[in-house]
Specification:
Length: about 210
């Protein structure tokens, strides 16, 4: 019994890493490509004071990235569960202490280079945390093309284009690797080309 399954990722061998909660505790389970459980992945080596309460997991470059959207932090492990890095995204965003309780992540992804991308709806911004620990961001609120309403899921393609879903505007926006607006598609409605409150995004980067 895996409990309540929250998220999953697929490694380079095709194994499925499931993130679930059972009796209030997070579990990571390795499954075959057919979805048959093989065994648990024990998270080891967490530094003292670092909590592990993730609700998203991404596999990229031989590493597992576990994100807690509410706490806005990330725990990075190898595929055996051995701790590699803890990332306090709110600290990197330089969010003041009195605003930390108001700020939560929504979209979360990692590109092929190991850069972490998150959307922060309350700030109307997308943040990118590069492997060298630099943080960059873009975004402004507004109804014009390329501006944000209520941003949600995020994905990055092989060319580095950043793709962002906006629930309020019911569109998906595309930006280049330098965060310059390129285009968008969708519109609220029931026609085949329309979208209704697009939420999360996934893209095949192969």
């Amino acid at each position: 019994d895996l409990g309540e399954i929250i998220d999953g990722a697929v490694d380079e061998a095709g194994d499925i890493l499931l993130l679930s909660y059972k009796a209030g505790r997070p579990l990571v389970t390795r499954c075959s490509f057919r979805g048959v459980p093989v065994g648990p992945v024990e998270i080891t080596g967490l530094p003292e004071g670092v909590s592990f309460r993730p609700n998203r997991v991404v596999f990229r470059g031989g590493l597992l990235y576990f994100a807690s959207l509410g706490a806005a932090d990330v725990v990075v492990t190898d595929t055996t569960g051995a701790f590699r890095e803890y990332i306090d995204l709110l600290g990197a965003m330089e969010v003041s202490d009195n605003r930390r309780g108001d700020v939560a992540l929504f979209g979360f992804t990692v590109d092929e280079a190991g850069s972490i991308y998150v959307t922060v709806p309350v700030l109307f911004r997308v943040y990118k945390r590069s492997p060298d620990k630099t943080m960059t961001s873009f975004g402004r609120s507004g109804s014009a093309a390329g501006r944000f309403g209520v941003i949600a899921g995020i994905a990055v393609d092989r060319q580095g284009r950043v793709i962002v879903a906006d629930k309020l505007k019911s569109v998906v926006m595309v930006f280049d690797k330098d965060f310059t607006y390129l285009s968008e598609f969708g519109y609220r409605g029931a026609r085949p080309e329309n979208l209704v409150v697009p939420d999360d995004l996934a893209i095949d980067t192969r």
